Amino acid sequence: MTCGVYSIINIINNKQYIGSSRKIESRWKAHIRLLNNNNHHSQHLQNAWLKYGEHNFKFIILLECSPNERIVFEQK
Predict the structure, then answer these.
(1) Which of 41, 46, 61 is nearest to 70 (CA)?
(2) Whole-structure pTM value
(3) Which of 36, 56, 63, 65 is the right S-S partner for 69, CB 3.0 to 4.6 Å?
(4) In whole angstroms, what is the distance from residue 45 CA to residue 69 CA?
(5) Which residues have C-beta within 8 Å of that of residue 19, sequence separation ≥ 6?
(6) Cα separation of 14 and 22, whole Å?
(7) What is the pLDDT at residue 73?
(8) Which candidate, 7, 4, 25, 26, places its Cα nearest to that of 17?
């Protein structure tokens, strides 16, 4: 599992959701489940997901780091 900072990018308009996790791959699966169930905590991301569809988003790791550093890097 990868610890660090990640981005969910809308490839249509290049808007991004930035997050961090101790287990990025598991967190992405949780995002997808919530978004597909129309139950994500970010209303902006949820609306875009519904408008553009899952196939217009990509998930990338921005930075791998220790669990203690991830929040600091996410906020930068």
Answers:
(1) 61
(2) 0.87
(3) 65
(4) 25
(5) 5, 6, 7, 8, 27, 31, 74
(6) 25
(7) 66
(8) 7
Shortest CA distance to 7 belongs to which of 34, 16, 72, 48? 16
Place of tokens 């997050």: 19
Which residue's structure tokens are 């209303």? 43
Residue 71: both structure tokens together: 């929040």
Listed residue (28, 30, 35) closest to 5, CA to CA: 28
pLDDT tens per residue across span 14-29:
999 999 999 999 999 9
Yes or no: say if 8 and 45 are a contact pair by the CB < 8 Å rule: yes
